[in-house]
């Protein structure tokens, strides 16, 4: 990628996530419950700044300071005395995009983004702000703390990753991939989950590495009831500490305690108590217990989940980013999802593996359509299947949600490159309907399917010894040992592999007429939606090349890698099912799907691929899974498909991702009111200024960043 590929364009699109109608339907207690939960989620989002890059906290505080206390119109008036309209727009777009991603690396893609104006103009705008005239020393201090990093683009700084090829704050900058593997092995050996920790490496006087595994918690100090003491491990010392993000988590706990006063039932109260306990102590088992109460809370009016949830951005695939969401259940939209849940066991039987590789009992989850009020994260998904804890998902259950007001905000009509005119028209017309089917199948029957074959602590197994591996026709000879999880075995492969499995399930089950009927598609309409589902997936697989980094050979986004792999599987199926052709040398492509072959060639190809994926996952066969998945993930120029060369063409047509603007809630008197914002850079910035106007965390955020800056010294 050239430098220009990292520069934000001024035409970044913005859209509003509108929840006003859903929020208005809540009673006063529900609004207060939602408000306090939202405060917890937004304050918790500050943790992501510390999880993204060393400079992100200072950059956040810089933007907050220069935009606060004065109106944006005053800010603009002063700025335009020194810079052009284009430069001013570029500054606002950069600030808004930074806030949306909770840092200066893309939440979807993990690559750095740069401002579309010269650094001297960027600085001129900062120093023209009314706030600078009032507090020049403070603003200069913040700017100097991040100035050298905003525009810097060394090879290492281009993306998130281990020190060999990227930036990460989940590990100190002297940690390599080998260090990551060592700590993952330590976690496995000591039956310790890594969701809520970071790792910092130092070297003691005798040259021996010392690894600090620091748990996220309000409390500091040692707690022998659940923490490991200092241990020797493979010629190193490992010590577990706690207290990461302490002041931020203290505020999160304060808001959760306030929300508890308005909880609708004992499950919600117990859930919040356990979350608070986990955040205070660093004990992940308490968060698991909170998640157990959460999955028992069926059909709540206000839905929420908060904690260290998704491991996409940890280069080792173990540690999780903080996130919190609050949403209102759309009861009418949720009805069709409940029908899908009720029919789930029938559809699971249609999947291309036998019952030995499926859960002993399908634990029917809550599956609701939500109108999102708050989503504190580095990006908002379209659907969610949580919790991610294997032992809960497999034996106790999970929840599925689709974010009903996010999907239309993300998907708007636009010219789709590389498609025939009729395919462009068909996708634009049917994409929301197709996406609704895919998200539902992906979350419920994708992430919700499949069994992990395990050896228990007492030496027994959760499967019959007579089970035959359908790929080898021999008895099962690999499984998850006690203390192992899917994430610890598959590590950095875990996210793209699982996303690919879920997307593949969605494709495969979209062939079922009864599935389409649930979403009110029958006959010719169902065939149109089916074509749109498959075409969109294959098309996104080609477009996914923009998330591949040739210099490192790494994929920077799990969903993108998953879709590229599926595109490769469909191409490999042959018989003209899915083709990509270069129509103008080095300039354009044509992506085509033969609708007449989806139910035959397509079904067979996806069935065979899915069977392998599931068997490898079920049996913990990381070697075979990696060999297959890496093969399909390769971006080469072999044969007729010049994927590596075509990536350059894809990059020429790269379009900026949409930024979503969300509302805020405020207490006025005894009422909670909702404030909406314009879908624009100005609206995004205003929403964040309002959100953190009365926060006590501004100075604390900088203190936390400064405390650990010694761990993140970057050399080119």
Automatic annotation (TrEMBL):
GO cellular component: cytoplasm
Annotated Zn(2+) binding sites: 442, 447, 499
Keyword field: Acetylation, Aminopeptidase, Cytoplasm, Hydrolase, Metal-binding, Metalloprotease, Protease, Zinc
Biological processes per GO annotation: proteolysis
One example GO MF annotation: aminopeptidase activity
Residues of the active site: 443
Gene3D superfamilies the UniProt entry points to: 3.30.540.30
Reactions mediated catalytically: Release of an N-terminal dipeptide from a peptide comprising four or more residues, with broad specificity. Also acts on dipeptidyl 2-naphthylamides
EC annotation from Swiss-Prot or TrEMBL: 3.4.14.4
Record's subcellular location: Cytoplasm
Main location: cytoplasm
Cofactor: Zn(2+)
Cofactor note text: Binds 1 zinc ion per subunit.
Family: Belongs to the peptidase M49 family.
Name used for this protein in its record: Dipeptidyl peptidase 3
Organism listed in the record: Nilaparvata lugens (Brown planthopper)
């Amino acid at each position: 990628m050239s430098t220009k590929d990292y520069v934000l364009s001024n035409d970044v699109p913005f859209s509003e996530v509108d929840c006003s109608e859903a929020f208005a339907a809540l009673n006063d207690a529900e609004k207060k419950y939602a408000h306090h939960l939202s405060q917890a989620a937004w304050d918790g989002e500050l943790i992501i700044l510390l999880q993204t890059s060393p400079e992100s906290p200072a950059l956040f505080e810089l933007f907050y300071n220069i935009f606060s206390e004065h109106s944006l119109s005053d800010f603009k008036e002063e700025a335009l005395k020194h810079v052009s309209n284009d430069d001013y727009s570029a500054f606002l777009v950069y600030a808004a995009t930074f806030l949306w991603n909770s840092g200066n690396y893309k939440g979807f893609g993990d690559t750095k983004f740069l401002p579309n104006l010269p650094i001297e103009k960027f600085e001129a705008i900062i120093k023209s702000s009314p706030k600078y005239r009032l507090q020049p020393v403070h603003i200069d201090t913040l700017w100097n703390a991040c100035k050298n990093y905003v525009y810097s683009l060394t090879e290492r700084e281009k993306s998130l990753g281990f020190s060999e090829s990227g930036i990460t704050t989940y590990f100190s900058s002297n940690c390599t991939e080998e260090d990551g593997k060592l700590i993952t092995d330590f976690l496995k050996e000591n039956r310790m989950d890594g969701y809520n920790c970071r790792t910092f490496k130092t070297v003691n006087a005798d040259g021996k590495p010392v690894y600090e595994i620091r748990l996220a918690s309000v409390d500091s100090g040692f707690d022998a009831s659940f923490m490991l003491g200092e241990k020797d491990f493979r010629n190193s010392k490992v010590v577990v500490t706690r207290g990461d993000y302490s002041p931020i988590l203290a505020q999160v706990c304060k808001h959760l305690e306030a929300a508890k006063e308005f909880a609708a039932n004992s499950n919600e109260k117990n859930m919040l108590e356990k979350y608070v306990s986990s955040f205070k102590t660093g004990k992940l088992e308490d968060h698991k217990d909170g998640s157990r109460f959460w999955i028992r809370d069926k059909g709540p009016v206000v839905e929420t989940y908060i904690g260290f949830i998704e491991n996409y951005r940890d280069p080792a695939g173990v540690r999780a980013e903080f996130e919190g969401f609050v949403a209102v259940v759309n009861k009418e939209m949720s009805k069709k999802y409940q029908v899908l849940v009720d029919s789930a066991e029938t559809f699971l039987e249609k999947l291309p593996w036998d019952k030995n590789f499926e859960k002993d009992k399908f634990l029917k989850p809550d599956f609701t359509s939500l109108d999102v009020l708050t989503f504190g994260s580095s990006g908002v998904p379209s659907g969610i299947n949580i919790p991610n804890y294997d032992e809960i998902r497999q034996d106790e259950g999970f929840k599925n949600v689709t974010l009903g007001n996010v999907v239309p905000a993300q998907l708007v009509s636009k010219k789709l490159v590389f498609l025939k005119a009729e395919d462009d028209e068909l996708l634009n017309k049917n994409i929301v309907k197709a996406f609704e089917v895919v998200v539902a199948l992906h979350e419920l029957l994708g992430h919700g399917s499949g069994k992990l074959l395990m050896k228990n602590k007492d030496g027994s197994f959760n499967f019959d010894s007579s089970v035959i591996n359908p790929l080898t026709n021999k008895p099962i000879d690999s499984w998850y040992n006690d203390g192992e999880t899917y994430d610890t075995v598959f590590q950095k492969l875990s996210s793209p592999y699982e996303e690919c499995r879920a997307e593949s399930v969605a494709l495969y089950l979209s062939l079922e007429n009864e599935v389409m009927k649930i979403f009110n598609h029958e006959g010719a309409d169902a065939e149109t939606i089916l074509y749109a589902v498959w075409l969109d997936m294959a098309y996104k697989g080609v477009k996914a090349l923009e998330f591949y980094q040739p210099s490192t050979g790494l994929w920077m986004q799990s969903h993108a890698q998953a879709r590229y792999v599926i595109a490769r599987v469909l191409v490999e199926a042959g018989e003209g099912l899915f083709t990509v052709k270069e129509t103008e040398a080095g300039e354009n492509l044509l992506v085509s799907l033969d609708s007449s072959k989806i139910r035959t060639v397509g079904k067979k190809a996806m069935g065979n691929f899915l069977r392998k994926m599931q068997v490898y996952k079920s049996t913990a066969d990381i070697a075979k899974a990696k060999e297959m998945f890496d093969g399909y993930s390769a971006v080469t120029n072999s044969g007729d498909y010049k994927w590596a060369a075509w990536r350059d063409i894809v990059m020429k047509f790269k379009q900026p991702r949409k930024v979503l603007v969300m509302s805020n809630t405020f207490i006025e008197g005894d009422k909670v009111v909702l404030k909406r914002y314009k879908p624009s850079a100005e609206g995004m910035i205003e929403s964040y200024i309002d959100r953190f106007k009365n926060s006590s965390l501004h100075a604390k955020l900088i203190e936390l960043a400064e405390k650990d800056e010694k761990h993140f010294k970057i050399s080119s």
